[in-house]
Design goal:
The protein is an alpha/beta fold. It folds into 3 domains: about 5-85 and about 175-190 and about 355-410, Nucleotidyltransferase, domain 5, CATH 3.30.420.40; about 85-165, Dna Ligase, domain 1, CATH 3.30.1490.110; about 200-355, ATPase, nucleotide binding domain (Nucleotidyltransferase, domain 5), CATH 3.30.420. It is about 35% helix and about 30% strand. It is built from 12 helices and 19 strands. The strands form 5 sheets. It has a 6-stranded mixed beta sheet, sandwiched between helices. A 5-stranded mixed beta sheet has the order 14-13-12-17-18, sandwiched between helices. Strands 7-10-8-9 form a 4-stranded antiparallel beta sheet. Helix 6 (about 240-250) crosses helix 7 (about 255-265) and helix 8 (about 290-315) packs across helix 9.
């Protein structure tokens, strides 16, 4: 591969897809996406591994695509994780000094962060995934973002967001990645990765609720005063929307997915009751004609349930109302027509769709909500390992551009336009 630079890889291991991205970071900090891979995901259910061999095969297929583009084996990868086994808490800890005269060091910061989880009742079944500092206090002075180099005579304290997961589930994902021939460089909560790609600095500072709707889970990350405040995962996502249609209307899953993706809406409109849509037959079977209003009523009911659960999580996080930044939806199922309107109606707050943004240095080819987690995994890992990287100078190689056009054609949400023409 021409040019100098350090390679980074990210693997988004989801319930419905496995996406692999590889980026090269130049000595100046510029980032170029140089390889990409995709495969349908098997062996995952709601963020949990239920079939080790199937998941390993899915990851191997996605990795193989990226490796062929790269022309070599992938470097160790940042791997996205989610699921109900992950829990979060906010913890405070401090180090006491005795008339210390020197400045705070990186070692001091590591010690105070480690003490945030000490004595937390962890055992072999539970493992810390993230300890994310929200704010430091130096000698009682609050609001310090980075204490390194500051004088601290009496104490150094930190308020942290701690994410813990089940060791068995984390090991299952790591084992599947290693089984596909890739070392794990680190595991990253998928909601935090998505936030890295789609949220603005103003949204984080003012407070915002990110909802990443994947295939098996909807991941929530709440930000307040510029830092992550709360994270959680809901067991409602794209699969549940499809399953409602399949069960409620007696359709094969493939037909239900077509009804949702091609024609469906979370809004029930007057014209729907007279509209019928034809769905393609499965495995050579005959097509089915179904009433659009029944499809949309099922989608509407599930969308309302999802929004209400999000609002309940906001209250659980300690907020009386949605923060001023509102709700930002991202992920593949966030493109469901009418979802934003449902959230506006029930949330009474600003609502928008989020995708990797050009204002954050993401090129046009990756400005799609389906790529939010994969792009965010890269950004999270690179920004924390390569100082000064990824300002607003990201490019995509020509081969990746071509692959993305093909990939997006496979994943494209076509929306209800055809049904409403």
């Amino acid at each position: 591969m021409p040019g100098n630079g350090k390679l980074y890889a990210a693997i988004d291991v989801g319930t419905t897809k496995v996406a692999t991205l590889v980026a090269k970071v130049s000595p100046s900090g510029a980032m170029e996406v140089v390889a990409i891979g995709y495969a349908s995901s098997m062996g995952m259910r709601k963020g949990l591994v239920v079939g080790a061999e199937e998941l390993t095969d899915s990851i191997r297929e996605s990795v193989r695509d990226a490796a062929q583009m790269l022309g070599k084996r992938l470097p160790p990868a940042f791997v996205g994780i989610t699921g109900a086994h992950l829990t979060c808490t906010n913890a405070a800890s401090s180090l006491d000094f005795q008339d210390r005269t020197d400045a705070v060091t990186e070692a001091d910061v590591d010690r105070v962060l480690e003490s945030a989880v000490a004595g937390g009742g962890l055992d072999d079944r539970r493992r810390v995934v993230h300890v994310i500092p929200r704010a430091y206090l130096v000698d009682g002075t609050p609001g310090v973002r980075n204490p390194v180099g500051l004088s601290a005579r009496r104490s150094l304290s930190v308020d942290s967001h701690v994410v813990v997961g089940e060791s068995a589930q984390l090991d299952n994902v790591a084992r599947a990645v290693r089984g596909a021939g890739v070392k794990v460089r680190g595991m990253i909560l998928e909601h935090l990765a998505s936030a890295e790609a789609v949220l603005t600095g103003d949204e984080r500072q003012g407070g915002v609720v990110l909802v990443d709707i994947g295939g098996g889970t909807s991941d929530i990350a709440i930000y307040h005063e510029g830092a992550v405040w709360y994270t959680s995962a809901l067991p409602i996502a794209g699969h549940q929307f499809t399953n409602d249609i399949a069960i409620g209307m007696g359709l094969a899953p493939a037909m239900a997915e077509e009804a949702k993706v091609k024609y469906g809406s979370a809004l029930v409109e007057n014209g729907d009751r007279w509209r019928k849509v034809e769905l393609q037959g499965v495995d050579g079977g005959p097509p089915r004609t179904v009433p659009l209003d029944r499809v949309n009523r099922l989608l509407h009911d599930r969308a309302v349930e999802l929004v209400r659960m999000v609002l309940a999580k906001v209250n659980e996080a300690g907020f009386k109302r949605v923060p001023m930044g509102g709700i930002v939806f991202t992920g593949g199922c966030s493109n469901l027509h009418g979802l934003v309107e449902v959230a506006l109606d029930y949330g009474r707050c600003p609502v928008r769709l989020g995708a990797p943004s050009a204002t954050l240095g993401v090129p046009l080819e990756l400005e799609d909500s389906k790529f939010a987690t994969g792009v965010g995994l890269l950004l999270w890992g690179i920004r924390r390992r390569h100082a000064g990287a990824v300002a607003q100078d990201i490019t995509v190689s020509p081969s990746v551009q071509q692959r993305l056009r093909s990939w997006m054609a496979r994943l494209m949400f076509r929306g209800p336009a055809e049904a409403r023409a």
